[in-house]
Design goal:
- The protein has helices spanning about 1-10, 40-60, 95-125, 140-145, 180-190, 195-200, 215-225; strands spanning about 10-15, 65-70, 130, 165, 170, 235-240, 245-250.
- By secondary structure, the chain is an alpha+beta fold.
Length: about 260
């Protein structure tokens, strides 16, 4: 089902960890997941960076879409204390074991991300890098975020997350966006700003209230493509790991 879905939306190649992909062509392994539920981000990123760097070096003029999905940041946030010992200790009245484990896990995750991003920029300085997650850690529920005063402690704050966008080696700031805006950001970058001259791009204007029904057709179109393995104008690549998934892809046609 996963393979058909990614093929339907245009991915050309999919790579899975060798431990779970007998008979499939792949370039990476899940590594040692002892005492942890998922593959560590750093293990995933380092192998992907090596693969991508080689692809860019061998095909310097061919546009590449490299899509990676990691699972390491999910509950129960267990760490291998030998490889990743606890470095952050919660003090004070609020003591949440799940939160303490999560922040320690994120300490190592952000370290791995920083190394990965620096490597990607070195491999391709003229590129777009987007780091985003689908949701916040569940922790003990929304009450935990209110007690921590996350983004003002409002009930709606738990539906807001951070996104990190780097264009040509430099971080850029966007207005508050939605996950479905990300493809538009990519298309606008790939067309050097022409896409948003011809289409509605909410991230280029001041924050406005969302008219949810405006994107119903777009959403249904994406879902229909995910269920249809017909050839798409964009060709791409995917990878699922024991603790995460990596999808990589390359566009068949050259960019502008």
């Amino acid at each position: 089902m996963t393979i058909d879905t990614y093929t339907g939306i245009g991915f050309e190649k999919r790579y899975y960890p060798q431990e779970f992909a007998a008979g499939y062509d792949t370039y990476f392994s899940a590594g040692d997941v002892t005492d942890e539920d998922y593959m560590f981000d750093g293990v995933l990123f380092s192998q992907n960076l090596e693969f991508i760097t080689r692809r860019i070096r061998e095909n310097p003029t061919l546009p590449l879409f490299n899509y990676i999905i990691g699972m390491y940041g999910h509950a129960p946030h267990d760490l291998n204390n030998t490889k990743r010992p606890m470095v952050i200790k919660m003090l004070g009245k609020l003591h949440d074991e799940g939160l303490e484990k999560a922040v320690n896990q994120y300490y190592y995750r952000t370290e791995a991300i920083a190394t990965f991003v620096k490597g990607l920029i070195a491999a391709d300085p003229k590129s777009l890098i987007i780091l985003v997650s689908d949701h916040l850690p569940s922790l003990s529920g929304s009450q935990t975020y209110q007690e921590l005063n996350y983004l003002g402690g409002t009930t709606e704050a738990t539906f807001l997350n951070r996104i990190y966008i780097i264009e040509n080696g430099r971080p850029v700031r966007k207005n508050t966006i939605h996950h479905y805006d990300i493809p538009r950001i990519i298309l606008n970058y790939a067309t050097r700003g022409k896409y948003c001259q011809e289409h509605d791009c909410s991230f280029t204007t001041r924050d406005t209230r969302l008219a949810k029904n405006n994107y119903r057709i777009d959403y249904l179109d994406i879902m229909s493509q995910a269920m249809d393995t017909a050839i798409s104008p964009f060709r791409m690549i995917d990878t699922k790991t024991a603790g995460g998934a990596v999808t990589q892809g390359q566009q068949r046609s050259k960019g502008p």
